[in-house]
Please model this.
Amino acid sequence: MSSESLVLQQLSTLSDPYSGKSITDTANSLDVSVDQGSIKVAAVWPYPIGNFGEGLKSLLKSNLELEFEGFSVEIDLAWKVDAQSIGNNKAALDGVKNIIAVASGKGGVGKSTTTVNLALALASEGARVGILDADIYGPSQGMMLGVDPETRPETIDNQWFKPVMAQGLQTMSMAYLVTEKTPMVWRGPMVSGALQQLIRQTKWDNLDYLMVDMPPGTGDIQLTFSQQVPATGSVIVTTPQDIALLDAKKGIEMFSKVSIPVIGVIENMAVHVCSNCGHEEHIFGEAGGNRIAEEYGTELLGSMPLDLDIRLQCDEGKPVVISDPEGSIAQKYKNAALKMAALTACQSNLDAVMPEIVVSDD
Model:
């Protein structure tokens, strides 16, 4: 066996901490050269590792130095996000590689907060990220990102909206097109049409990920999204309480029926830590996110605490990932975002075919 093969064999015994696969199975490309006591490894990762990359390089370097004593080791890591396809015939969205829907079966579980923090976490790793606020009736991303309520998107050639830049993200929301006091008293077809316009008539600029903040439930907007948008996958947000888990299951089942893979589950309000004494209490139940992930054969991407700062910072337009980037909560969001990105790049069930939807009179 050649020296290069021995190095590759050793790398195959190491696991990527976010994809769960071996280093050799995770990397898009992996080149090894061994020459006169020197090992050089050049790899391209399939998800953004702007900050995490240094830790990964140290892991690989120390392991190879230990295994191949006396050799100097040089690691060169780069990353590139590719577009993933779910194998249907829906038209691709110009300027967007991957579309990830963040959804829940019910309201009030922190779906919008999760969306914005995941998006900011991916951006902090160097990815180009956008947010589409698909909650036509109750858009909130503008406020969470600190966008002035009077902000309106620029138009391009009188047919495209230019995304509104906020905290380094490309964003689009119905909130940018109406005042905050304008009620959206629309029937389903009007809402569906508005969603399609926001998606298709926004000039997204070379996004690695478009995070879509879905409204709660499984109604018109969700159906329009699943039929019209080439989604790469979805993330389900829930709290540990039984009634939230029941509705989360409905969300998972909905995505299953329309062949949009569920990348994973994020559990919000998992535990409350008393700010005075440090006592931990599972107010809404315990390990609900784990149970639903195991039941549906998906992953628990992260469990977020019930913490006042998460709410306050979003209300002030500075979500926790940017207001306290080194804090423990921000790190939880960053780990969840990297795991989501890694699983999106490495999952094997992205070639599903959109089923035909038939409506009968029965």
Remarks:
- Residues 349-362 have pLDDT under 50 and may be disordered.
- Residues 60 and 179 are 52 Å apart (CA to CA).
- The chain has two domains: 3-79, 96-346.
